[in-house]
Amino acid sequence: MEVNPLLEQFADHIARIEEALERELDLYSWSEFHAPLRYACDGGKRIRPLILVLSVECINSKRPGSDAYLAASAIELLHTESIIHDDIIDDENQRRGKPSFHVKYGYNSSILTADFVLGVILNIGSKLKDTRVISELSNAATRMSEGEMMEIRLNKSPEISEDDYIKVLEYKTASLFETSAKLGAIIGGGSEDQIRAMTSFGNLLGIAYQIH
Q1: For the chain, which has fewer Cβ within 10 Å, the N-terminal or C-terminal residue?
Q2: Tens of pLDDT along 11-69?
Q3: Bridge-partner residues for 98, per DSSP?
Q4: 2: burial class by Cβ within 10 Å (0-12, 13-18, 19+)?
Q5: Is residue 103 exposed (0-12), middle (13-18) or buried (19+ Cβ within 10 Å)?
Q6: SS (H, E, C) 60-99
């Protein structure tokens, strides 16, 4: 995977995220979904899982442990699931410099693969010590879907207010940034105030990322 020059300083973290993701995917080497999943995950910048790991570092001076990278792999998989669906809805033919998932594998396989990914995420969540992790991943998935539905509805509207636009961004895109930062604070052992602060940071970062 090619690393964005802006992210080179975090190459070690990204490499460990990749290792965690590879380990999880290899658990399904027997599955019909293994090759499609690897295709879907290949080429991502890993920004969202990196936010989780860096948030752990912000809260806790100790080096992030295995739980941080495992949770980060779940974040990347949730992002992967969302872009499979997003590319179908938006009729995008290219993603990460190659044919979109549905172009390569077809619509039926795309829907089933995205469903399978959610099962993989649940399995990862069950391995993590803090039960809040799986709850937050579930909330993120729900909000991202809600944001997609909002966008579909608003695309048919003759007028879209600024508030509507920001709300779509908050749900569809910022939700996963927010969850990444929040989970980093949780896994890092942050106080309630620290968790709230990182949650707010993730939300604002996600909105800024999408607007940019």
Answers
A1: C
A2: 999 999 999 999 999 999 999 999 999 999 998 899 999 999 999 999 987 888 999 99
A3: 95
A4: exposed
A5: middle
A6: CCCCCCHHHHHHHHHHHHHHHHHHHHHHHHCCCCEECCEE
The token duo for 163 is 């508030």
Q: What is the pLDDT of residue 61?
A: 79
Cβ atoms of 60 and 189 closer than 8 Å: yes
Tell me the fold of 5-211: Farnesyl Diphosphate Synthase (1.10.600)
Q: Is the dihedral of CA 7, 54, 179, 210 positive or negative?
A: negative
Rg of the chain on CA atoms, in Å? 17
User: pTM value?
Assistant: 0.94
pLDDT tens-digit series, residues 81-134: 999 999 999 888 999 889 999 999 999 999 999 999 999 999 999 999 899 999
Enumerate residues 6+ apart whose C-beta is below 8 A from 21.
Answer: 41, 73, 76, 77
Q: How far apart are CA 79 and CA 84, in angstroms?
A: 9
Question: How many residues comprise the chain?
Answer: 212
Residue 145 CB coordination number (10 Å): 15
Closest CA to 21 of 86, 66, 87, 58: 66
Range list of H helices, the chain: 11-26, 34-41, 47-59, 66-89, 101-105, 107-127, 132-155, 162-169, 175-187, 192-211
